[in-house]
Design brief:
The protein is α/β, with parallel strands linked by helices and 347 residues long. The chain is built from 15 helices and ten strands.
Length: 347
């Protein structure tokens, strides 16, 4: 457990900047002139800055410019269609997308008239395509094995499965709603009207969090009320939230926990934001604790609990930090060290 006592600060404007809201990855011959084309138009009509690669595939290698576009996109939508795996171009982009996913980019798979199990098991058309790649790249079999592994990872993600049971319009509207929810969760926090001089404190906290470490790390920020604990933690959140699969800043925990029943609402809010499920409901504190343990243990998350008063609030909202996936990070702000030192002895 690490402590940083702040003795005065103001604000920060440091945030991760995305050039695009959405990057569309697809097999051109299958869907460019139908489903993906319609999805692209719907995204643009809703105001999402969306990149679609309209250049025809040239050669085997992906340009550095296109790789950079993938890196600078908040969300990648991958449209898996019948002939997706036959394209080395698509497979190479998929590998790059999943590399970016480890740095906080969200990946939404769409299974367009193909069953996710076919991709996961690599049978059917996907099995035939991968077998052809293995024959073609017999001198570089590791590359094909990476394609196999990434396809399996993608098929295991939660996504949308399109088949003839939906109208295309209805299906695309469901995708648009999901994208809208996700982007709203990535909006930077307002730190201060006139941000001045907080970057040094925010950088210090970021160093303590040691984002490269595989451990689950917790940092406490303590000090008197009004000295800038919340401001610092918001600035840190804006700087690093893009590194995580899910993140949430829970403000005014002490005050909101005093309201009868509001701890359940806080738990619901925390889970719904991280899981991107606006309809999530729980009936009691213990049910939500179990959900936190079950649903977040496989996610790399960033959680900030602002102005915590007692250990029970932490237990109700976080359970135990070892419930979270490796590389998760927790920040707790508190007026004195008592709760923080207790947590420090337990972790």
């Amino acid at each position: 457990m690490v402590f940083l006592t702040n003795e005065g600060a103001s604000s920060s404007s440091s945030t991760h900047q995305w050039d695009y809201d959405v990057f569309l990855s697809f097999q051109g011959e299958d869907t460019r002139n139908n489903f993906t084309g319609h999805l692209y138009k719907a995204l643009c009509d809703q105001g999402f800055d969306t990149f679609i690669d309209n250049d025809l595939q040239k050669g085997e290698e992906i340009s550095m410019e296109l790789l950079k576009v993938i890196e600078l996109s908040m969300i990648s939508i991958v449209v898996f269609s019948k002939n997706f795996a036959s394209s080395t171009w698509c497979l190479k982009k998929l590998v790059k997308i999943f590399e970016c996913r480890s740095n906080g980019q969200w990946v939404l798979p769409i299974f367009y008239k193909v069953d996710p199990s076919e991709i996961r098991k690599q049978d059917g058309e996907y099995g035939i395509a991968i077998a052809k790649h293995e024959e073609k790249f017999k001198d570089d079999i590791e590359k094909v094995q990476k394609w196999r592994k990434t396809l399996t990872e993608a098929a295991n993600l939660s996504g949308f499965h399109y088949n003839d049971g939906y109208t295309e319009f209805e299906f695309i509207q469901r995708v648009i709603k999901e994208i809208s929810n996700t982007i709203s969760n990535h909006e930077p926090l307002f730190v201060a009207k006139h941000p001045v001089g907080i970057d040094i404190q925010a950088e210090a906290i970021e160093l303590l969090l040691d984002l490269e470490s595989n451990d689950v790390c917790m940092v406490g920020i303590c000090g008197f009320g009004g000295i800038g604990k919340t401001t610092i933690s918001k600035a840190v959140y804006n700087r690093i939230a893009h590194h995580f699969e899910g993140s949430y800043f829970l403000e005014n925990v002490r005050e909101r926990s005093k309201i009868n029943g509001d701890i359940i609402q806080l738990q619901e809010k925390l889970l719904s934001k991280i899981l991107r499920d606006r309809d999530l409901k729980v009936h009691n504190v213990f049910e939500c604790i179990n959900l936190i343990k079950k649903r977040l243990r496989s996610k790399k998350v960033l959680l900030i609990l602002d102005d915590v008063e007692d250990l029970k609030e932490v237990e109700n909202l976080l359970g135990e930090c070892d419930w979270f996936a490796s590389k998760s990070r927790v920040i707790i702000t508190r007026r004195d060290r008592h709760v923080l030192t207790t947590l420090g002895r337990d972790t």
